[in-house]
Amino acid sequence: MSPAITLDDTPFEPSSGASSPATTAGTLANGSEFLTFKLGGEDYGLDLLRVQEIRSFEEPTRIANAPAGVLGVLDLRGVIVPVVDLRVHLGFPQAPRDGNTVVIVLAITGRVVGVVVDGVSDVIAIGPKQLRPAPEFNARLERRHVMAIGAVDRRMLILVDIDALLGEPSLGLLSV
Description:
3 helices; 176 residues; globular; 6-stranded mixed β-sheet; mainly beta; 5-stranded mixed β-sheet
């Protein structure tokens, strides 16, 4: 049984398990804005400052022998951008792509990467009092990829450390 998450006024103290502890801790300690998106019926959020643009889904050009989560590449105004399907990367079952499916284009560690999600919801400001530590659990999304859980208006958001998630060696996207 996992520990209960209480929604009190206790400020959240970020853990040091994130890939960029100083940046992550600073972002969370001061509160921040997050782009919320849907994936597999759950609500997720990522740091809005990482978002370059949101595009409707278009089938990328496939690359031979690309890792399982990498769908291919898109040409965005002369910049070749690898596109990762977060459903595949996280082991979610495939779902049909529809008019809500989008590519979130992110600027991460000097690279531009696109991620395919089921849809975007909104931009939401989350203050330190709305943050809770992610519990230890056995799930598709590893604990080191979760910065915190945001509790906003009876809504629970899984705040993703997108740098750590896309920096995994299995994708080979962010390593030099």
